[in-house]
Amino acid sequence: MTRHRGIPVTTPARTIADLRTLVSVRELRRAIRQAEVFGLPTGQEVKSDRTRSELEFQFLQLCKRHGLPRPEVNVRIGSLTVDFLWEEAKLIVETDGYQYHRGQAAFEDDHARDLELRTLGYEVSRFSYRQVVDEPAKVVRGLRTALRGRGFWR
Question: What secondary structure does DSSP assign to 74-93, as a single string?
Fold first, then answer.
């Protein structure tokens, strides 16, 4: 611990280490994600899955539970960052929470992104929070079909 303007403080990595015994796994993951968003050091003992939201974390867990190949997470393609990428299959998945993907501007932005990615040769699939959480079997079937169609899934 040190002091900043008379206030006792710890490093982000130490705070995260201390949180491990005090908060739920979900709250800990949220603290880690927030530190990473701000570029703060989280400590080498913290292994990141590179997700930036609870929905992204849920989608990654869905892939793991159903034996799907692990995608790359939050990858830059040109000027865009995509949620999930299977590079060999040229397949992108965007997970869309309502909070950030509602309204006219979000609708237009999402379609512009999809068009740009398709012109680069990628297939784009979008799944909502409700689909990922409440209809995982449908999401998995859709992913397997997309991967198979791109010659990547058995």
Answer: EEEETTEEEEEEETTTTEEE
* 101, 110 contact by CB (below 8 A): yes
Residue spans per domain, the chain: 2-37, 54-149
pLDDT tens across the length of the chain (154 residues): 778 888 988 888 888 888 877 887 778 878 887 887 788 888 755 556 788 788 898 999 999 999 999 999 999 999 999 999 999 999 999 998 766 667 788 888 888 999 999 999 999 999 999 999 999 999 999 999 999 988 876 6
Q: Which CATH superfamily is domain 54-149 in?
A: VSR Endonuclease (3.40.960.10)
pTM of this structure:
0.71
Rg over CA atoms, the chain: 18
d(CA 32, CA 37): 9
